[in-house]
Amino acid sequence: MILNGTQAKALQLVANAELRTPEQMLSLLLAEGIRFYFCDYESPFNHTQLDADAVEAVLRADAMRCAQG
């Protein structure tokens, strides 16, 4: 995944505000986005099947790995 300049700057600002690494913050933001789009919000693509809990678990585990590293 490649972020453009604006996305990278926004990610760095959010990471700094949360006292996290950009890698950890990106994993957490992705987890929250997936949770919102596939669980808290009814997708207009009703045929899309995704286990959002499994995806969130993987992203959160990655965020914790980034925090320890």
**H-E order:** HHH
Number of strands: 0
N-to-C span: 20 Å
Please give the domain count. 1
Describe the structure.
This protein has 69 residues and is mainly alpha-helical. It has one domain (5-68). It is built from three helices and no strands. The protein has helices spanning 5-18, 22-40, 52-68. The chain is globular. It starts with a helix and ends with a helix.
Structural key phrases:
single chain, 69 residues, mainly alpha, 72% helix, globular
Task: Give a brief description.
By secondary structure, this protein is mainly α. It has helices spanning 5-18, 22-40, 52-68.
Write the topology of this structure.
Layout: H1 5-18, H2 22-40, H3 52-68
